[in-house]
Design a protein that fits this description.
Length: 220
C-alpha cells in the first residue's frame, strides 16, 4: 500500500529545509520569511497527552489555524474525524518533537507530517471560510495528500468549551476504502527522524530537527 501511495504522488511536497531559496546564506532571515509568506505550510503533530491526539495546523495570515483531532486523519471519505478547534498558534511554532514535562499538554510530541496546503477553488477566501465553517483544501504533505474538508459542526454540546469541526477526506485518487489500512498504522513514526513515540520519550533531545534551518522556518 505504501508503494502504491508513493506511485500516486504526482505532486511532490517540497522538502522545506532543502529548498535552494531557503538554503541561501547571506539574507537568510528575509528569504525565509518570504518563503514562509508564499507557502501555506501545514503541520500535524502526534501528541500523547492525557489523551493521544493529532494537532493539525494550517498557516494562514500570520497564524496557524489549529485543531486537535483525537482519532487522527483518515483517508476513507466515510470517516468524519472530530476536530476540536483550539486557539490560533503563533508562526514562531517549530517543526519539532519533544517531551512536555508539565502542564495540560504534558506528554510526548512527534512531528508526524508536514508540507504545504492550497485552498480549493471557491475556498480561497480563508477568513470567510473560517467564519462560514467550511474550508476545502489540498494537502501536499508526505503522508497526507489530496483534497480534504474541514466543516464546523453546527450543533455541538453546549457544555463543551471548544468549537467542534470534522476533518473528512474528499473522494479523489488518494482516498482509500474503509477496509484499507489506516495511514496512522501504515506510517506511525516521525517524519523528521523516523522515531517512534517511545524513542522520542526516551531521548527527547536527540535529533530534534532534520536540520536546523527546517526547525527555524517559522521563527522571525
Ligand atoms: Mn496537542
Amino acid at each position: 500500500m505504501k508503494k502504491k501511495l508513493e506511485n500516486r504522488n504526482e505532486i511532490v511536497a517540497p522538502r522545506l529545509g532543502q529548498s535552494s531559496e531557503i538554503q541561501k546564506g547571506a539574507d537568510r532571515p528575509r528569504v525565509k520569511n518570504q518563503a514562509a509568506a508564499m507557502q501555506r505550510l501545514f503541520s500535524v503533530k502526534k501528541h500523547d497527552a492525557t489523551q493521544l491526539h493529532y494537532d493539525f495546523r494550517l498557516s494562514h495570515n500570520g497564524v496557524l489555524l489549529s485543531w486537535a483531532i483525537p482519532d487522527g486523519p483518515s483517508y476513507w471519505p466515510g470517516h468524519q474525524r472530530e476536530a476540536i478547534q483550539v486557539k490560533d498558534h503563533s508562526l514562531e511554532y517549530k517543526f519539532s518533537e519533544r517531551v512536555i514535562y508539565e502542564g495540560p499538554g504534558a506528554g510526548t510530541v512527534m512531528q508526524w507530517d508536514w508540507g504545504t496546503w492550497v485552498p480549493l477553488p471557491g475556498y480561497t477566501d480563508v477568513d470567510a471560510c473560517m467564519r462560514n465553517g467550511l474550508l476545502k483544501f489540498t494537502l501536499l504533505g508526505e503522508k497526507l495528500k489530496g483534497s480534504w474538508t474541514l466543516a464546523r459542526v453546527k450543533l455541538y454540546a453546549r457544555n463543551r468549551p471548544n468549537v467542534i469541526w470534522t476533518l473528512t477526506k474528499e473522494q479523489d485518487s488518494f482516498a482509500r476504502s474503509e477496509a484499507a489500512r489506516s495511514i496512522l498504522e501504515e506510517a506511525p513514526n516521525s517524519i523528521i527522524t523516523g522515531r517512534t513515540m517511545k524513542e522520542i520519550a526516551e531521548d527527547p533531545n536527540k535529533s530534534k530537527y532534520r536540520d536546523k534551518d527546517q526547525g527555524k522556518l517559522f521563527e522571525e
